[in-house]
Design goal:
The chain is of the alpha/beta class and 175 residues long. Helices cover 31% and strands 15% of the residues. The longest helix is centred in the N-terminal third of the chain and has 12 residues.
Length: 175
């Protein structure tokens, strides 16, 4: 069995820059620590790397939804069409969430602004207070999305498109 290389903050920072992340970037991050590989000091190292790369002139925004990691689904539930289930967590719950170790570590930092409600968002850096109210500001300013080890279906800002109404004028432009 081969030993997988241990990633440190500097390795991660270089890889983030190679992906196009830079000082001043405003970025929505969704991630899976287990998919990254072995990281020295775990989720904290990934969060520190993100902060170092975007700097205080940028912003980092992550979901901090109040849902537990997935719960086991019984055969009866599958028969009834239930494929996935979670438990709702209380506002002050210290439990791990379904958002993952990186998001939970980020959320728990003293310098991160935590929004409220079930679909709460947490943010650090420029305009953190505004970003903590949801993803609209990030989209409006042309922010970036960074998916680390997760698929596009994890991108929370995509849900804003659910609220877009296509007008006759927009449909005409599409044709």
């Amino acid at each position: 069995m081969s030993q997988e290389a241990l990633l440190n903050r500097e390795n991660i920072e270089n890889q983030l820059r190679d992906l196009g992340l830079h000082k001043g970037a405003c970025v929505e991050v969704h991630s899976s620590l287990s998919r990254i590989g072995h990281v020295e000091d775990g989720a904290t190292t990934v969060v520190e790397a993100l902060i170092n790369v975007v700097g205080t002139s940028g912003a980092i925004v992550m979901s901090a939804y109040l849902v537990s990691p997935p719960l086991p689904v019984t055969d009866e539930e599958r028969t009834n069409g239930i494929a996935w289930k979670v438990r709702l967590l209380s506002e002050g719950s210290p439990e791990k969430t379904a958002m993952g170790a990186i998001s939970d570590s980020f959320r728990d930092r003293n310098d991160v602004v935590l929004g409220s409600g079930l679909h709460r968002v947490c943010a650090w850096g420029r305009d953190a207070e505004v970003h903590s109210k949801g993803y609209r500001h990030l989209v409006d300013i042309g922010g970036l999305v960074l998916l680390i080890g997760v698929d596009i279906d994890r991108c929370s800002s995509l849900h804003l498109s659910d609220r877009v109404e296509l007008t006759e004028k927009a449909l005409t432009k599409m044709n």
